Amino acid sequence: MQIVLNTAVEKNAVQGPSVMENEDQRPDSAEYKFRFITNQPDGKHTGDPGVTLSVTGVFKYLPITTALQGYDYWGATYTSSNVCALRGSTVEISCTYRYPKEQDGRNTTVQKTLWFTKRDGNKYVDLRSDTDYEDRVEYSCEDNSCNGKSTLRIRDLRLSDSAEFKFRFTTNHLKGKYTGDPGVTLSVTDLQVKVSFPDPTYPTLADLECHSMCGLAGPYIWIRSGQSVGRGRTYREYIVSKDNYSCAVEGYEHLPSPPVYAPKTPSVTVRPSGEIEEGSSVTLSCSSDANPAANYTWFKVNTDNSSRYMNQGQQLVLGPIKSSDSGKYWCEVKNELGTKSASISINVKYGPKNTSVTTSPSGEVKEGSSVTLSCSSDANPAAKYTWFKDNTVYRDMNQKQQLVFDRVNSSDSGKYLCEAKNELGTKSASISINVKYGPKHTSVTSSPSGGVKEGSSVTLSCSSDANPAANYTWFKDNTDNSSRDMNQGQQLVFGHIKSSDSGKYLCEVKNELGTKSASISINVKYGPKNTSVTTSPSGEVKEGSSVTLSCSSDANPAAKYTWFKDNTVYRDMNQKQQLVFDRVNSSDSGKYLCEAKNELGTKSASISINVKYGPKHTSVTSSPSGGVKEGSSVTLSCSSDANPAANYTWFKDNTDNSSRDMNQGQQLVFGHIKSSDSGKYLCEVKNELGTKSASISINVKYGPKNTSVTTSPSGEVKEGSSVTLSCSSDANPAAKYTWFKDNTVYRDMNQKQQLVFDRVNSSDSGKYLCEAKNELGTKSASISINVKYGPKHTSVTSSPSGGVKEGSSVTLSCSSDANPAANYTWFKDNTDNSSRDMNQGQQLVFGHIKSSDSGKYLCEVKNELGTKSASISINVKYGPKNTSVTTSPSGEVKEGSSVTLSCSSDANPAAKYTWFKDNTVYRDMNQKQQLVFDRVNSSDSGKYLCEAKNELGTKSASISINVKYGPKHTSVTSSPSGGVKEGSSVTLSCSSDANPAANYTWFKDNTDNSSRDMNQGQQLVFGHIKSSDSGKYLCEVKNELGTKSASISINVKYGPKNTSVTTSPSGEVKEGSSVTLSCSSDANPAAKYTWFKDNTVYRDMNQKQQLVFDHVNSSDSGKYLCEAKNELGTKSASISINVKYGPKHTSVISSPSGGVKEGSAVTLSCSTDANPAANYTWFKEHEDSVIESGQNYTITDIRSKLGGNYYCQAHNAIGRHNSTFLSINVTETYQQMTTTVGTIGSIAVLLAIILLLITFLWMRRKRASRKASALRPDTVEEPLPVPVYGNVLALTNRAAPAALREPIERQDDLHYASIHFSRSENQEVPRCSAGSRVQSDQTDEVLYSVVKFKIPNAVPEGRDQAETGETSELYSTVKKHPRV
């Protein structure tokens, strides 16, 4: 092939051809141009366009001669400016150089030649000494025998060898050095395999295409897993996931492309490892080797074994993790050539949640019923439960899931909280128990107490203990003894009580469980009321008429009257009921108050007199007064004295002497008065009693207004035309005019009404203001002139200025002065001198400029009046890019094999290469494009980074080597080491060095020497180790390259557990029976036992497994705890004994104590010791029927006939017991006693009777000591504590023997006797038939016994006198003394 370039040179130059030869086809496809330079100033020329050369072939080149032949000059010519070669091949680059044969009279000789790609300061680094090319570079000629030609040979090309290579020679002359610049750019690349699947019906049928950026023509061969399988640029085959595929140029099989292959079996890991707690962040990571790079997809296995899509990417992040996230996760790795998957399981632990408390039975809780509270919580591990009542740990039930109330009491009401707890957290739930019971302790009070005055506030309050809250109903007794429903609620409030409110009020307290009532009476007194004032005659009061005021009031006692006018005592009429005006005057108008008063209060009433009269004293005023200026605020005010208030009407006189109605009201307001408002204004004042009027005049002055500016001619203003501005304004006096432009007084035209521009200029554009002014004001108006003109002063700038680096941000800005605003359009000159429209707008922005953006840019500025343009050029330089690293051979790397890493990068100028491993410069290979491992080791695994760098930037690429090897250094450890205690957390960890990551399988040796598969994973975790976990554990470590195993043994010790306490016999425990408590516990070593009762070590039984009660007593009730203990721990269990027994120690008290007055209220209360709780029944002596049930018996309005002996009976399921008698003595009132004593007649008779009574009491005392044992009520089952009485009631006790009865005539008055007893501590005292409250304790106490006497009376024959007649009462004082 020969290319002849014809040209001619002037003067001494010789005509001749320039010849470029290429004997072998190489990748030199390009456009070639010839350029020559003469000795003339402009004697330079380039042949453009040049010659386009298209080349196909492989690697060998011949030189292209671009210099003129046959002349002495310095020069160097390369074979080609760009060379492309495959990695691993050999390339030759030749240079023909020339120099003057003679210089300064001396022959020229070449002393040194070298090839280089980089400089070290001012020194050129010879490739032969460059470590990156060590043992790979040779020169074909090194001395003068080269005859002007040198060839560079580079063997075993690497991707990092891509660079610009230059030739340099040095002669014997001082300045005789020359470098061929620019040099030759070498690009080293790999073949690439492109994969496509042409037919969807055959998903594994693939078309493989071998591709090279060098444009190699082939022929190509195809390699499958190391075996040649075909020829040609493309290859079709059914893909098998285990195989890999690569291509190579035939004859260069040692330089194959990186293989493509399906994903290898992936490895799945979890971080953090170990136990996973709910709420933590968990990351699942999946990795696999694949080319092309694989896509990662995550799935979760559902409970029905179906899969649910989770995420795309190598990591699946669960944060914060939930308990529902537990399960099996699959990682699917997929590229065009196949799919692989692997799985991992997650077990999430969590603290208690969804804690709830329920009650059984549900619904309303009634006192005495059985109630169970149950607590539940979802937790892993299972929760322990603790009960609290009102924020305090509740009794001995605090570790059970249920809290049982066998017989609930009102005191059990409250809020119960159940706390569920495990090592991961605590949750609680609460429930409230509201025990329902009927009303009790009902009472009524009045506030204030004492006398009630009418008009005061009185509140009757009713209280009662009940649940659910009782309904309160108030009734008032009517005069016909019927009741009237008054109110609902706990209080009956009289905010202002009236005399009619006197009476008896009853409060009825009721809920669904019962009804109780209580009453109170109110007596109201009142002061004056219904006070009123009247006027005569009634109706309207006119000035001059006669008027009388009269005052009346209902009061007891009668009220006195005082008159006030406007809060002041009125004249000398203040004590009379009437106030008379003979001739009323307007000054008598006002408020008159009459005050009615007595000692119980004061009431008043008032009336107003409004004296009516017609308008008078009418006048009109102006504000402000004086001269009126237009725009000011003016108010005309009209005033007149009139009653009733007058109506005000304003009129304005028109020019034709007619009047115009202006306004209604006392004022006529001009907010912003106008000149048209000048004139006379009349105010007319009128009411039904007359009319008056007054007038005023207004004269308005005003400053300039309606100021305006116009332009002539109107419309658009173009530069160079004539324009006139005119100003006008309405003003009185006439205004003067001043012109302003842009807020500045404009030239000498400022006092004229017109502003004239003969030839308007663009600088005349602006806002013009005309100011019209007189002494009363100033007004202005403005107009704008917008002079239109075409673009001018167009320019283009670049930011930043200077050199442009690829990747930087560059902004081209175009500016031009134009009106209207111009449109900006950017063009770029193409190589064929055409222009390409780039952008609209003042700026052309390159956010990230590229080398292809170099060129000339034109900005065209245009509006309707013209067009202008300006241009600028951009020259872009760029640093390294498209940096990549490849590995050979591709695919899996096994320990011991040979591996080569190659780096390549596109850069101008050529890049230098540095290798890093895990961010550290790697050994002495760091300046070479290849990194070779002759025998790779597992320690060579890691990330390798190749850094390509020139003065314009740095780019890097990385690749990871994952050296695969079978398991080694396998071992098993236990944490904690040493002895293992049950309940502790134990982790067996298996470690082994392996790649790919090994699968770990745990086995436990069974007692029959077989092995049981325990777990998958590096750790075998016993979160809460059990004794059954003792044994030998084997860890098997396995990957596709081998298997190893190691073992360890666990011996678990444990403290007491499953501790329990039982009772024998089971069921209810009755007082006096035999009971045995037994404690058991599983422990190693065996446990010792200690018994506690109510948190205290119990007697000498504390080291035995059984606690025996031969004869259980009520005092033995309580909580018993058995503690089982060895050196490894302590466990306890508890049981409660509830000893059941019948009522005992039954007693009665009275409130109030002592004597009871007729008409008062008495409450008897009964108490006893019993389990279960006793029920109470009330009896009265000599009456067979029950009179009341319940612990309390209340008599609200006691009468003498209700006096007598009362007792209560306490009973439960075990037995019953009666109390002693309590005697109620109802006394007469003081007035009744006085009447009785008056009938005796004289003091002498009274003394005689007293003497007889003393004798009588002495005799009765003797008899009482003998007969007391015969006088008692019936006894039920158990003996009752016996009261001691001074009994003198033989005649009133029908059950007494006849021998104890005395003649009636001897019992006619009241007497008192003191009786003293002493008895031993445990003595049973006989029960008497009559008497008062009896105490069985040992303290001294004064007791009263009632002695009743029959007054002689006429008794029918055959009737016992003890059954008839009236009774007198005698009180006897009884004192008890304990025996010491």
Descriptive account of the structure:
InterPro entries: Ig-like_dom, Ig-like_dom_sf, Ig-like_fold, Ig_sub, Ig_sub2. It holds the Pfam family Ig_2. The chain is 2% helix and 55% strand. A hairpin with a 2-residue loop joins strand 65 (679-687) and strand 66 (690-698). By secondary structure, it is mainly β. The strands form 33 sheets. Strands 8, 12, 13, 16, 17 and 18 form a six-stranded mixed sheet that branches. Strands 110, 111, 113, 114 and 115 form a five-stranded antiparallel sheet that branches. The protein starts with a strand and ends with a strand. The longest helix is centred in the C-terminal third of the chain and has 25 residues, at 1243-1267.
Fill in the keyword field for this structure.
single chain, 1380 residues, mainly beta, six-stranded mixed sheet, five-stranded antiparallel sheet, 119 strands, 2% helix, 55% strand, flat, disordered C terminus, Ig-like_dom_sf
* Sheet having the most strands: 6 strands, mixed
Task: Report the count of strand segments.
Answer: 119
Helix content: under 10%
Query: How would the global form be characterised?
Result: flat
Structural class: mainly beta
Low-confidence parts lasting 5 or more residues at pLDDT below 50?
1-27, 54-71, 1267-1380
Rounded to the nearest angstrom, the distance between the terminal CA atoms is: 152 Å
Domain Ig-like: 266-345, 352-432, 439-521, 528-608, 615-697, 704-784, 791-873, 880-960, 967-1049, 1056-1136, 1143-1227
InterPro entries: Ig-like_dom, Ig-like_dom_sf, Ig-like_fold, Ig_sub, Ig_sub2
Keywords: Membrane, Transmembrane, Transmembrane helix
Region (Disordered): 1357-1380
